[in-house]
Amino acid sequence: MTHLDRRDVLLGGGAAAAMLFAELQGTTLAAEAGETIIPWADQPTSLPPPAQAVIKNLTPWEALDTWITPNDKFFGVTHYEWPSIDPGTWQLAILGRIETPKRFKLADLKALPRQNVTCTLECSGNDGLPFFKSAIGNAEWGGTSLANILKAAKVADSALEVVFFGADQGEEVLRKGTPSELTFTGHFARSMSVADAMNPANILCYEMNGQPLPAIHGAPVRLIAPGWFGIANVKWLHRIEVRDTRFLGRFMGRDYVTVREEQKDGEITVVETSVGRGLLKSAPARVTEKNGKYRIAGMAWGPDAIASVEVKIDDGPWTKATIAEQQGTPVAWTAWHLDWPATPGDHTITSRATDTVGHVQPAMDDPFIANKKTYWESNGQLTRHVHIG
Ligand SMILES: Nc1nc2c(c(=O)[nH]1)N[C@H]1C(S)=C(S)[C@@H](COP(=O)(O)O)O[C@H]1N2
Ligand SMILES: [Mo]
Q1: Beta bridge partners of 269
Q2: Distance CA 326, CA 301 (A)
Q3: Is the Cβ atom of 59 under 6 angstroms away from ligand 1?
Q4: How many CB atoms lie within 10 A of CB 319?
Q5: Is the dihedral of CA 304, 211, 132, 53 positive or negative?
Q6: Which of 92, 262, 321, 374 could form a disulfide with 338 if both were Cys (CB 3.0 to 4.6 A apart)?
Q7: Whose CA is nearest to atom 20 of ligand 1?
Q8: 221 in ligand 1 pocket by Cβ < 6 Å?
Q9: Nearest alpha-carbon partner for 227 in 276, 188, 158, 186
Q10: Mean of the pLDDT values across residues 80-103?
Q11: Relative to the CA of 256, which ligand 1 atom is closest?
Q12: Residue 139: nearest ligand to its CA?
């Protein structure tokens, strides 16, 4: 898909260009001339200093107004550091339980068949903390098939997982304050089962929206695993290792672990799971006004195609929103809107998505959300507040 932004089209002028834009981006999404955005009354709180080191470029929902999120509006997250890697000397090692260990230079990867995917990347911490909203974006990622590289390397039958190591590293402390306290330095790393890694949708990505992958998004090469939460999409790739044991590094086994109470056979158990595939979710993105008419617009996304989005205003009934035609694969978000005859005063707006396999985005008091102890994977229905003057 061509990377266009509203300005380019409007400057290009003409109805044809506007129609092309509408086709590409979904008519429900693009802001129109004369349209005013009414900012949400419940703005996220400002980033506390520890989070400032971890999160970059968080763009408010009101400004995420294109189907493709331009690179300069795309949020960034890191845990240890923001490495800047020389693409000329960079190499990617593939080793472990494979027949043919290999090293790839950037040019070697670019010489392999190109594979592009447009998919939405959401941080699993999104909406889990008062300052953390809109940690999501949708981009066209360009690279080459991971599965083809693994197949060529011939993965051993004994292999269990593929571990993706980033170049970024930092200090970890285990059993802090106890006699067995341990400090070590490790790379950011995440693993996937061999079957998940072999998914033909995964790419080793070196381009974002037609540009070389920016440094904050993992240059020169990152993993893009469509349909998985942000954490699985390892940036600044350094080493890919096929192993015959489970990998339980910090970002698999200690951090990014969702703790949930589940009721099974009348017994309540606490279940801890590693954050993995994305979940069905939607968000109201903005309210706009044009000539006294109001419109609510938002996005819906998840591992399966979106079937419908409903909106609840104040304590009113659920009303079906108009959803844009699905653009490409289900792994890219879907725009929706609802025209709203708003009355002056304070209002709440809640959205709820349903997918084509029958999942419904859970309410905040659904046990799936209410019995979740950790803030990861907060896919509950979001309520935003707005004041109409
Ligand atoms: N090497 C490395 N990859 C990483 C991370 C990291 O800290 N180091 N953070 C992950 C998390 S939590 C998210 S949400 C996404 C964010 O990708 P982005 O910065 O391109 O938006 O990168 C993931 N990949
Ligand atoms: Mo994340």
Answers
A1: 262
A2: 11
A3: no
A4: 13
A5: positive
A6: 321
A7: 217
A8: no
A9: 276
A10: 97
A11: 12
A12: 1
Q: Pairing state of beta strands 306-313 and 345-355? A: antiparallel
**pLDDT band with cut points at 50, 70 and 90 for residue 30:** low
Could you tell me what percentage of the chain is helix, strand and coil, using 3-state DSSP and rounding each to the nearest 5?
15, 40, 45
- Residues 34-64 have pLDDT tens digits of 899 999 999 999 999 999 999 999 999 999 9
The rounded distance, in Å, linking the Cα atoms of 102 and 77 is 29
Per-residue pLDDT, 33: 77
Return the amino acid letter for 46.
S
Residues 6+ away with beta carbon under 8 Å from 282: 298, 299, 300, 301, 306, 309, 336, 351, 352, 353, 361, 381, 382
- Ligand 2 mean position, distance from CA 76 (Å): 9
Return all residues near 344 (Cβ < 8 A) that are at least 6 apart: 388, 389
Q: Which of 71, 77, 70 is nearest to 122 (CA)?
A: 77
Verify whether ligand 1 is closer than 6 Å to residue 121 (CB atom): yes
